[in-house]
Amino acid sequence: MRPRTCLAPEGKVPSIVDYRPKSTLKVPSTMRMKAKFPVVDFHGHPGGAQIGSVEALERFGPTLDSINVRLMVVAGNVSGDRLTQGIALVNQSKTMKDRVRFLTGISFNGVGTPGWAQKAIAQLEADAKAGAVGIGEVGKGFGLSAKKADGSRLKLNDPELAPVFEAAGRLKLAVFIHTADPQEFFREVDYTNERWLEQSLFPERRYPQDRYPSFDQLMAERDSLFRRHPKTTFVAAHLGWHANDLGRLGKMFDAMPNVLGEMGAVLYDIGRQPRAAHDFFVKYQDRILFGKDSFQPEEYPYYWRVLETRDDYFDYYRDYHAFWKLYGIDLPDAVLKKVYYQNALRIMPALGAAAMGFPK
Q1: Which residues contact 198 (CB under 8 A, 6 or more apart)?
Q2: Is 149 within 8 Å of 113 (Cβ atoms)?
Q3: Cβ contacts of 141 within 8 Å, gap of 6 or more
Q4: What is the band of 122 on the pLDDT scale with cuts at 50, 70, 90?
Q5: Predicted confidence band at 2 (pLDDT cuts at 50, 70, 90)?
Q6: Where does 39-355 sit in CATH, by number?
Q7: Which of 241, 115, 122 is nearest to 177 (CA)?
Q8: Among 86, 171, 252, 294, which has the minimal tally of Cβ within 10 Å of its Cβ?
Q9: Where are the chain's structural domains?
Q10: Please, what's the largest Cα pairwise distance for the chain?
Q11: What's the CA gap between 247 and 241, in Å, rounded?
């Protein structure tokens, strides 16, 4: 093939799932199994095998130790009896009672009916008293599919929600919100869509515009919510799905001092722009939280490698998310400490004794 001359390949053309070129690049590899500093996983989804019993919790501890996760925050959006049962179970464990904490939830059922906000606030107050350290993960159904009592779509910035989010600020409970999904899920699934493979494998991840609000509409509603409650701390899950556009994320941070971002499940975007990501993390080091999302211990080292090393051109752990390679962004120790644990401890004063064991 010559410049400006396109030739058809000789032989059979492989499909996108069959083409797996083996890199000939020889560069140093410094995969780290354990994080350099102890970590708060702000976006935890451990299951029954990890936290379903005291025995499971006792087994969970060594697994967390193997990757240096000191504190797991369970972001299950649960409240009431389910929350108190989970807290009580953790408190029964002698070795894990300071290593697992829970976020409470908000039920949007009945928004628009008299007394809904008062009931929701009373539940938040009870859950905070029981030991919840924050709110969330408020799922992506909020904005996409949640309905008001009259059947209309519940917008993220609906005025009837305002008293609840104001109460969150009063109770010093950070609100962890997952809004929408990657922008590519909202556009046509053609061969220019870099998430084509993922949406072909998982068609339920598509959001056709004749059935769902647009990505930009959801972001506008989310930002309106954040601005409306400046005394409430909000954490945008997955860096707000703006890790592919750090300029946009930076503008959001600049305009909204009450907003932080959590980096779960967007490592593929951070690691493909190592210089820009390094500079962004340094500039906004007080605004980013570590989170993993799905609990798969073997996947955490990829995060340590991207954040801590200068490694070149290595695989992401799920190739249907990213067919490209990643690079280490080599963050300074002071920034790593903030991302790994200091920022989480700062915005969740209710952690209390769980802060023990972290470096000062």
Answers
A1: 205, 320, 321
A2: yes
A3: none
A4: very high
A5: low
A6: 3.20.20.140
A7: 241
A8: 294
A9: 39-355
A10: 71
A11: 12
